[in-house]
Amino acid sequence: MSPRTEKQQPIDEEEYITQAVREYLLTHPDFFAKHLDLLSALTLPDPSNQAAISLTARQLLLNREKTNKLEAELNQLVSFAYQNEKISEKVHQFSLMLAHCQSKADIDATLMHGFKNLFQIEAYQVIETPLLQQSRAYCLNQLPTTWQALLDSPLLLAQSFAILPLVNQDQSLALCILASHDAQRFPEHAEVLFLQRLADLLSVT
Length: 205
What we know:
- The protein is of the alpha+beta class.
- The chain contains 7 helices and 6 strands, in the order αααββααββαββα.
- The chain is elongated.
């Protein structure tokens, strides 16, 4: 008995040719440089209106799209850098204000002025009884129910919160809660670099 052989699937001629052309162009990147006349002869559908355009025009469109995307990303980076610079200036100004405080009353007045006028914080509260879940600053959209009995009413109406643990030499001191009616002001998993700087500043005040 002769050995059985698996029946081979018929080869799709168009698919075979397409793959062969693709591999050839990939291994011969200078092909169109040697055949410039093909660039104007070949056409592709325009993605904006499905009209036929030349390969050269299609490449120009792709390059323009890439340029626009890079410009948008650059503008976003510049915007972030500007925002970070402004926040850094505010944190520095706030630290200078706290450095001039001579009493607890001065600190309380400076906190109220700084949070409201420098950082546009709608409500805040310092809880001297430590309720630390972690030692680094973080954000929440909803506070734990076990905290609510300790909070003033303005915080209970807020939609997002920045939690600043006040820690000195690894010892829990208190918790400073910043609140906003804007749910996107302090979203969970937000970047907390400047919030942690505020927490560090308040911890040594």
